[in-house]
Structure formats: C-alpha cells, structure tokens
Amino acid sequence: MTGSPNLYLLSDATGETAEKMVMAALTQFRKKDVRISRYSHVRTKNAIYEVLDEALQNQGLVVYTIVNRELAQMVNDECNSLGVPSIDLITPLLMKFSEFLGRDPGETPDLLHGVDEEYFRRVEALEFTIKHDDGQEVRQLANADIILAGISRTSKTPLSVYLAHRGWKVANVPLVKGIAPPPELFTVDPGRIAGLVIDPQRLVELRAARLRNLGQDPKTAYADFEEIEEELAASKKIFRKQHWVMIDVTGKAVEETANEVLVKLGLK
After folding, report:
1. Is 0.90 topped by the overall pTM?
2. Residues 193-220: pLDDT tens digits?
3. d(Cα 14, Cα 43) in Å, to the nearest integer?
4. Per-residue b/e over 81-106, b at no fewer than 16 CB within 10 Å?
5. What is the per-residue pLDDT across 137-152, written as a single tens digit (0 to 9) for each?
6. In whole angstroms, what separates CA 228 from the centre of its chain?
7. Which end of the chain is more exposed for a tag (fewer CB within 10 A), N or C?
8. Residue 66, SS3?
C-alpha cells in the first residue's frame, strides 16, 4: 500500500460515534497518518456500494455503525466478497444487549444523536460565550441569545458561563464610567438584554477583595462607596432608558440569578 492508509466510516446516523471510537483507537498509533472519510446517513444499498467500491480501489478499511440489521449484514457480506477488511462496531453490542435484556433492538438510527446535538449545542454556546466575554467581539452581539450588561464585579462572567453550560450563547458587556458603551449594544433586540445591578456596599466589599488579591491598595476610587453609587446610578439610567430588564445579583447564587434572567427575558 502506498500513501496514507484509508479508513471509511459508514453510519446510518451521523457517524460521530464511529469517528470518536476510531480516533480513540488511533491515539495508540501516533506515528501513523491515516486518511479518514466519514459517510453519514447511509441508508440505501446504492450508497453502500459506492463507498465499498472506493474502499476496494484504495485498499481501505471499512468501519461501520449501522443499526439496521439487513444493511449491516449487507456491508459485512459485500466486504467479505470483495476482500475489503471491515469492522462492525455496533451489531455485536446490540446483540449482546438483546440477549441480556431479553428483547430485540429497535434498529432506529439517530437515537443517540439527540444527546450528541445537546452536547454540541452546549459546547458551541460555551465557545461563543468565552469569545464574547467582557466586551469582546461586540460586532457579533446580534448572534447572542442573551446579553448581560453591568459595571465591574456584577457577576457578568460567572453568570455568562453558567448560562452557556445550559446551552445559551451569552455575551457580556462592561459599563465603564466615562466611556461610552459600544454602539452595537443599542442596535440589538432590547428583549435579549439584562442589566445587572448590586447593592453598593456589597460591591465595595467585592472590589476591595479583588484589589487585595491583586496586591493593590483597596482604598482607591475603584472600591470607593460614592464612586460605586455613581456608577450604579449611571448604569440604571441606561437600563431604564433602553427598557432592559434589571436583575439585582446581591446575595444570590449564580443558579438563582440565571433562572431570573431566563424568566425575565421570557426564555423559560
């Protein structure tokens, strides 16, 4: 065989299960480059013939997860007839479960895919949220499910990450005294924006603790009570003017605040 070995992954669903298992196995062969071709939703005989013809031509290995027993048997028989090596990842498992549970498998593709979709939706949401933390990528605010706005230390980031783990794409934008908020913040649907507020004395404590952790003097304007009151008043003025829902995070667990955000934005 010349060139990189060829692997052909066949599935009557997405093929993600086969690919994950193959990639896990290939980690034991680090020095070997393998060309992987994945074929999803293979549910007809013609589709199977096409893939097997290519596998034969390129001396490839066929790995398949096909829950339909008739099609799985066809792949097995055709590979044996053509002399193409193959591995059935799902049928032996289904048969063993059938024996153990005392009933036949449903042979329905994509049952696992619903779980995978949820998982990947959360991963995508988390990636989006990290990229849009603390005012980054404000040009993409329109793509967020939820936008959080507030002055420093009003729990924007932990709240964003918690919501992202639940599948929501979240962007958060800091409001800084003396600096105009990004104009993009005022062009998106106001029904997706929540303004975060907090008790000023509690915010003094949070900011002073942050400064101490950074080895800085806690007695600065950043942690000054009057300065904080002005910042909060200015942020509330924006929230009211833009008709954004207002969420008080004082003394609340992130789960409780997240639930309030979803309820007030009509997402729950």
Report:
1. no
2. 999 999 999 999 999 998 998 899 988 9
3. 11
4. eeebebbbbbbeebeeeeeeeeeebe
5. 999 999 999 999 999 9
6. 35
7. N
8. coil
